[in-house]
Design a protein that fits this description.
The chain contains 2 helices and 4 strands, in the order βαβββα. With about 100 residues, the chain is an alpha+beta fold. The chain has a 4-stranded mixed sheet, covered by helices on one side.
Length: about 100
């Protein structure tokens, strides 16, 4: 269900396990509507050390949620992306309830 792709490098299993656990916590909020999760890890070519980019696409029934964050570590970027998606997921659920 969770597909992790590292672009231009090989992610170690510790990082993948970290991301998997964070995504699983997010999925507990709305497990019924989530069809799939795409995670993209990328190293940006930049002069700063803040070059670790994490993008996550949550594929829901009837909608897609997307977040992209960049920081000094993949763990920090993942935390920020998960928090952004959590807010989007809460808003999405509120919209569905309002109908």
């Amino acid at each position: 269900m969770v597909n992790i792709q590292s672009i231009g490098f090989v992610a170690d299993s510790k990082l993948e396990t970290f991301i998997q656990s964070k995504v699983n916590k997010l999925l507990k909020l709305d497990d019924n509507d989530v069809v799939g999760v795409e995670v993209f890890l990328r190293l940006e070519k930049s002069v700063t050390s803040e070059n670790k980019v994490v993008e996550i696409i949550l594929d829901l029934k009837g909608a897609d949620l997307f977040a992209k964050k960049q920081s000094q570590s993949f763990e920090e970027s993942t935390d920020m992306v998960i928090e952004a998606l959590r807010r989007q997921l809460v808003k999405h659920k509120e919209k569905l309830r309002a109908k």
